[in-house]
Amino acid sequence: MAHTPTSHSPSGLTRPPWRASVLTLFPEAFPGPLGVSLAGQALDAGLWSLKLLQIRDFGIGRHRAVDDTPAGGGAGMVMRADVLASAIDAARQDDADLPLLYMSPRGNPLTQERARSLSAGPGVMVLAGRFEGIDERLIAGRGLTEVSIGDYVLSGGEIAAMVLLDACVRLIPGVLGASASLVHESFEDGLLEYPQYTKPRDWEGRPTPEVLLSGDHAKIAAWRRSEAVRITRERRPDLISSKENG
Ligand code: SAM
Question: How far is the CA of 50 from the centre of ligand 1 (A)?
């Protein structure tokens, strides 16, 4: 199953489309929010592609079982290594060059740096887990890299995969267009973003900071930088110390 671009490949592409291949029990959840706005337009324009593989097609027996009870007992079900390996091997026939990721609360946290590095590559193959997760042996057996989107537990990997894909897709050259600049975004320079304002100039007795209306670009840049540092120190001092140590 593939979500192919509805329009022809745009001319003037400087690189082949970035490829996303998702292995899931719920392919119908995709593209979901990735099908609208900038990511959706980029998908239609062929800047990236989305392939979906239904894990159940590789299930065992008449009922296409994909999971079984945990060895050693306990609650819930575990996705079988043999079923998932068959699904991965099939998906890899076309996309052997893609890094293979498993969305998992145990993984290394998804960061802007990781999203940037993945988006600079050919694409990603992502396994979305369900139930209690996957048989541990698959991780070494197929060389999966575990990636977490945060310290909480979701009911499945689909939303986590969408988060990862969205973070990567918006960094593909041409996706955001000329209107948006990535340079000053949160995390791009190790800081959170400075506060943004627009019209009206005064809203409910809250004025826009005078410096932003001054037209003095050097002063504005200095104010934004000091606000970014202040907010980062207040909310995420860990980002400042990792910058100082890095
Ligand atoms: N039993 C697992 C544990 O405690 O680590 C949680 C399994 S969770 C209910 C089912 C699936 O959701 C996982 O296999 C994973 O694919 C996905 N998932 C849940 N939380 C996630 C997170 N924070 N980041 C990435 N994926 C997550």
Answer: 22
> Which residues does ligand 1 sit against, CB inside 6 Å?
103-106, 128-130, 132-133, 148-150, 152-157, 160
* Ligand 1 centre distance from Cα of residue 133 (Å): 6
Q: Is the whole-model pTM more than 0.85?
A: yes
Same-domain status, 124 and 233: no
Is there a domain that residue 43 lies in? yes
What confidence tens digit (pLDDT) does each residue in 62-87 have?
A: 999 999 999 999 999 999 999 999 99
Distance 231 CA to ligand 1 centre (A): 31
- Given phi > 0 = left and psi -120 to 50 = alpha, else beta, which region is 121? beta
- Which amino acid is it at 25? L
Which residues constitute the domain of residue 144?
A: 2-169
For residue 178, tell me if it sits in a domain. no
Residues 143-175: tens digit of each pLDDT = 999 999 999 999 999 999 999 999 999 999 999
